[in-house]
Each structure stands twice: as structure tokens, then as C-alpha cells.
Amino acid sequence: PGDTCSIRGGTYRETVTPAASGREGAPITFRAYEGETVVVTGADPVTAWTRHQGDIWKAPMPWDLGKNNQVFFDGQMLDEARWPNRVKGQLLDPEGAKIDSADTAGLICKALPDGDWTGAVVWALCNSKWPSWTATVTGHDRAAKKLLFPLPEGVRRFHDPARGGEFYLVGRLGLLDAPGEWFHDAAAKMLYLWPPGGADPNQHAVTAKKR
């Protein structure tokens, strides 16, 4: 207690867990060494990129945080591959597609593009849009433009898509169709990326959240 820990400049890819605690009036202070910059990050580099097809590249990424995955390009946070694509770039604007109708079996969106969406993940914001919920698509009625998935009773009661709202889809490589998007294949332990500006990711710092 009362000590000051001066950390030399650099990037520290780790979780910091102090071994001891200070006390009231005598805190333990952690600070950057004078004149130096310290970065503590939860992300690790993703390297060894090869071209997958067109503007899409791929590289091994053996870890997976599921819905908490996050990818950065030269420090800029990128979007997970999705439909519809984000265009405004506002973090708190989901830019989702309109839910035209829904029932206990799933939701209908007249603007839904053709494709097999089975296995994709729905992110939905219904009624009060400050919360969201997810569901994995178990089937797809192409003619009806309907995504099929079961919903827990709590979701139907408080955030029922039948009352309107918006949603977007993630979790499919086929959704990777714009610069600045990424997709992680957890089974293959592979990260796919469409770099901003068509850049070669080997010439840039690509990192992904790991802890």
C-alpha cells in the first residue's frame, strides 16, 4: 500500500491482476513511466494472411470468444459480416432491417435476400430497442421470406418481434460482402477479412480480441 508502479513503454497483451491491494489513504498507483506510452490490450495479432478469393483474405485464429469476438484494423474496430450492411458507422445505431411480421415460429422480412440462412444468427431489437436478443436460424421459408427459430417465453413476453422492431443477420461467410467486415469460422479456426480500402492485411496491424 502506498507504492507506485511505473510501467515501461510498450504494448502488453495480457490480463492485469494485481497481487495486492492498497488501502484507504494509501493506494497502489500504476502509471506509465515518464515520457513513455503504455497500452494494455485484450487483443492479439492475427498474422500470416493469404488471399481467399477476390478482396477477401484469411488467416488462422485459433481462439474464439463467440458473440464477444471483435476485430481491429490499425486500431479501428471493424464490423462483423452481416446483412444488412452498416453504412452510417454510428456505434449505437444497429442499422437493422425492418421486421414486417412474426409469430412463435420466427419472423418475416420482405427485404430478406435469397439464400439459405439456416445456421445464421439473428440479432433482434424489438419494442424498447435498448435491449437485444439473439437466436440461431433453424430453417428458412424462402417463399414467405421467413426465418424460422424458437424463442424463449421471456423473449416473446417482453420483446416479441410480432410487435415490430428490427434485426440483422451474422454468422455466415456469405455475408462477408463489403470492405471493413470480418467473419470467424470457429470450427476451422480461421478469420476471414475484407480489409478497408482493399489493403494487404500483411502490411497492417490486424488484431482480434482474445481476453
Summarize the structure.
The chain is built from 1 helix and 22 strands. The chain is mostly beta strands.
List keywords for this structure.
single chain, 211 residues, mainly beta, 22 strands, globular
Report what the structure shows:
- This protein is mostly beta strands.
- 3% of the residues lie in helices and 38% in strands.
- The protein has one helix at residues 153-158; strands at 4-7, 10-13, 29-32, 38-41, 43-45, 50-53, 56-60, 71-73, 76-77, 79-80, 82-83, 97-98, 101-103, 106-108, 121-126, 133-136, 139-141, 146-148, 165-170, 181-185, 190-194, 206-209.
- The strands form six sheets. A five-stranded mixed β-sheet has the order 6-7-21-20-10, with no helix packed on it.
- The chain is globular.
Structural class: mainly beta
Secondary-structure element pattern, one letter each: EEEEEEEEEEEEEEEEEEHEEEE
Number of helices: 1
In terms of DSSP E residues, the strand content is 35-45%
Q: What would you call the shape? A: globular
Tell me the major beta sheet. Answer: 5 strands, mixed
Radius of gyration: 21 Å
* N-to-C CA distance: 28 Å
Oligomer: single chain
Q: Average pLDDT, to the nearest integer?
A: 94
- The percent range for helix content is under 10%
Low-confidence stretches: none
| Strands ordered across the widest β-sheet | 6-7-21-20-10
Q: State the total count of DSSP E strands.
A: 22
